[in-house]
Amino acid sequence: MSVYGVMLASFLTASVEWVEAFTIVLAVALSIGWRRAGTASLAAFAVLALMTLASGFFLRFIADAHILQFIIGMFLVLFGLRWLAKAIARGAGLKKLHDEAEEFAALRADAKLHDIRAGQMVAFQGVMMEGLEVWLIVVALGVQTGRTGAAAGAAIAALLVVMAAGAMLRKPLANVPENTIKFFVGSAILSFGTFWVLESIGYIWPLGDFALPALLLFYAAGGLLAMKQLDVRKALS
Amino acid sequence: MKSFIKTTIGDRHNLLAAFGAVLLALLVFETPLRPFAGLVLPLALFGGAVYLARK
To answer: B44 phi and psi, to 5 degrees?
Structure first.
């Protein structure tokens, strides 16, 4: 798998998560100040960085490459399946689209944000929860391809882009096409998971590495079709 | 811890859909229909995604 593929998947996943984290930190910062909210966020980023280093280190002790590939593949399947299903449901109108502006307004209305300790905890937990999915993708793609540095670098680049956009706009990044990104990233991650799970048990893909884009096409086209079908059924019911 | 597990592996429906699809593909892989495992897994996972979307 090319380094660009790893970086793109990592960058897009991280972008979606950092946008959501930014909304939380912005709401907290407007209540208790940027310095306090920033400190709590930095602490969460430090924990995530430590987790990435530690998991990358410990996963190397799994001597059998096939077992490692199966474990990573399963995590990617679980992740990709969840994102693809969520994107299909939202695209078909079965679930409400994630609205950053609405999320921001709800957070701002929360009285506990005005308490310094509680506000810092909300910022810390918000960054941690959104960052966990970034950690998972960086470690899974990075360890399996031997490109953890590139995957982590792409996630950090996404963070810088989101921070720069947030600093310029000074409001939640509500115009990011979150569901579209989630749909394609979910399809891509599910493709990697499918490919590696079967490869780890000795299955030889007929198209070799070209099976990956074929899988991506299958999941993306199938997902679009499912969205339309579910949308039609919803309209008829 | 609960949030950590939910964020990394999802809820029980997600687990059921993922492990069900992989188990089915592994079963096919152990039969003479082995070459079709590469067809069964994506189809089963896609079915799982639609099931989760409708849930």
So the answer is: -65, -40
pLDDT profile of chain A (237 residues), mean per 10: 84 93 92 92 96 88 88 94 95 85 83 83 93 93 89 96 89 82 94 96 92 95 94 73
State phi, psi for A2 to the nearest 5 degrees: -70, 155
- Whole-prediction pTM: 0.87
**Residue A190 near chain B (CB below 8 Å):** yes
Write the DSSP symbol of residue A97: P
In this prediction the ipTM stands at 0.94
Nearest residue to A140 (alpha-carbon basis) of A77, A215, A205, A214: A77
* A77 vs B18, B35, B53: nearest CB: B18
Spatial separation of the C-alpha atoms in residues A21 and A41, rounded to whole Å: 9
Pair A18, A12: CB distance under 8 Å: no
Q: Do the chains contact at B41 and A226, CB–CB below 8 Å? A: no
